[in-house]
Write a structure and sequence with these properties.
Layout (H helix, E strand, L loop, with lengths): L2 H14 L11 E7 L2 H9 L1 H7 L2 E7 L1 H13 L7 E4 L4 H7 L18 H6 L1 E2 L2 E2 L2 E6 L1 E6 H7 L9 H11 L20 H11 L16 H17 L9 H9 L5 E5 L11 E5 L13 E6 L7 H11 L2 H9 L14 H5 L1 H6 L3 H10 L21 H17 L4 H18 L4
Parallel strand pairs: 1-2, 1-3
Antiparallel strand pairs: 3-10, 4-5, 6-10, 7-8, 7-9
Helix pairs in contact: 1-13, 9-10, 10-17, 17-18
């Protein structure tokens, strides 16, 4: 490390820890995190937090689906296994209202008004913040412009799905190790269904009707899922039913994906040169064509280390943490957690380091989680109801079966409708 970078890092950390100079009685915190890049980076940056405060941090890094299952079970039963948990917009308002997680109130230096409104609102209930965003995201198209230019095709913002398919066909070269498109196929309500739901939305479909009855055999669902299975089955990599975010990120950085439609946060970790970005495609209905999400940090109710946990969350989701990542010799501005604060996007250093910045913030600001006539519930790629993880998980398995060829699309959607209808009926919606 150069003298300058050491000085910059030292100054940044001294500012970052100013509100947390007092050790939290040398607490020991167990933190459950999703195994995504920014979370992994946090473990290294947070070594300085332990050094400054004396708080020992035990990290439990889990694959997304496993994390959700374990965290939900432990929090719902008051198991006390974790002091801090990663949750998102689906859980935070519901769990906050249910009293499963602690309300979060930070000091004025935290500058909560700097938080992007869409992200703050999605993690709050009745105006109270229950989970602080570590990073936020929407979804967008990330594509190899060198390949599309060579093939003579273009991809526009909010392009049609038909044109996306033509572009995938044009750059598809499996003999050369490049697949036209990479999309999530791994079953899970936050895995394949995150992408699939936005596609269904763009076709004019929704999970439920105004009476909250599942609509999985509607014309819109059938059109969207047939298109998805054909697109990914024809121009995607083999075994796509086993791929979610991390698997596709690895494929993309190996140069094997001509196009990827997924979380905007992926742009921070792309190493292939010449990537271009476009707003998510739609089939006539742009509302809900791109999702809205945040991986956030919350404190389970009744935690004996609640004060120390909240102090850590306040630091880890602050502007000062972003500055510490930017100054860290292993990271820099391109690696800062994005999608949470207005000040990040206003930073000239971030703008210079992140060619995706304008596309990312445009996607986040255009996401539409509010209920509409077509979608009578809050949430873009999920429904903000307690039963959704069970419904989404059941449907996810059926969509993966259709993608793998184990079932036809009609068979998969019929089974999905039956499973969803049973869950919603037993929950008392009708």
């Amino acid at each position: 490390m150069t003298k300058l970078s050491k000085l910059t890092l030292g100054l940044s950390l001294s500012v970052a820890f100013a509100p947390f100079a007092l050790a939290q009685d040398a607490a020991e915190l167990t933190i459950a995190i999703v195994n995504n890049g920014h979370m992994i980076n946090m473990q290294k940056v947070a070594e300085a937090y332990t050094e400054k405060t004396g708080v020992k941090l035990n990290w439990v890094s889990l694959e997304e689906g496993v994390l959700r299952e374990q965290v939900t079970s432990d929090t719902a039963t008051g198991g006390g296994q974790y002091d801090i948990i990663n949750i998102g917009m689906q859980e935070a308002p519901i769990w906050g209202k249910a009293g499963w997680i602690e309300p979060l109130n930070f000091g004025p230096e935290y500058d909560i008004d700097d938080m992007l409104p869409a992200i703050r609102n999605g993690l709050s209930a009745d105006g109270q913040l229950y989970a602080a965003p570590f990073y936020g995201e929407s979804s967008m198209v990330m594509y190899r412009k060198d390949l599309t230019d060579a093939a003579g095709v273009t991809i526009a913002d909010n392009d049609s799905w038909d044109n996306i398919k033509k572009a995938a066909e044009a750059v598809h070269n499996p003999e050369g190790g490049v697949y036209g498109v990479c999309l999530r196929g791994k079953p899970g309500w936050g895995d394949n269904m995150a992408f699939v739901t936005t596609m269904v939305n763009s076709f004019g479909g929704a999970w439920f009707d105004k009476d909250m009855r599942p609509t999985l055999e509607s014309d819109q669902w059938k059109a969207a899922i047939n298109f998805y299975v054909d697109l990914l089955g024809t121009y995607g990599p083999p075994g796509s039913e086993g791929n979610s975010f991390n698997e596709i990120l690895a494929l993309y950085n190996e140069g094997k994906c001509g196009m990827w439609i997924d979380a905007t946060i992926a742009a921070s970790f792309l190493t292939v040169p010449g990537v271009a970005y476009a707003q998510s495609p739609n089939a006539g209905n742009p509302v809900g064509a791109n999702w809205l999400w945040a991986w956030a940090m919350a404190v389970p109710a009744g935690s004996p280390n609640a004060d120390a946990s909240k102090a850590f969350i306040e630091w880890a989701t602050s502007k000062d943490y972003i500055a510490a990542v930017a100054a860290h010799p292993d990271f820099g501005w391109k690696s800062v957690p994005t999608g949470t604060r207005t000040s990040t996007y206003a930073s000239p250093e971030f703008q210079a380091a992140a060619p995706f910045a304008a596309a990312e913030i445009a996607a986040i600001q255009s996401a539409a989680p509010q209920a509409t006539d077509i979608k009578p519930y809050v949430g873009v790629q999920f429904a903000a109801i307690p039963e959704f993880p069970e419904v989404g998980g059941a449907v996810a398995q059926e969509i993966a079966a259709a993608l793998s060829g184990a079932k036809t699309v009609d068979e998969a959607l019929a089974a999905a409708q039956s499973a969803a209808d049973k869950i919603m009926s037993e929950a008392g919606y009708y």
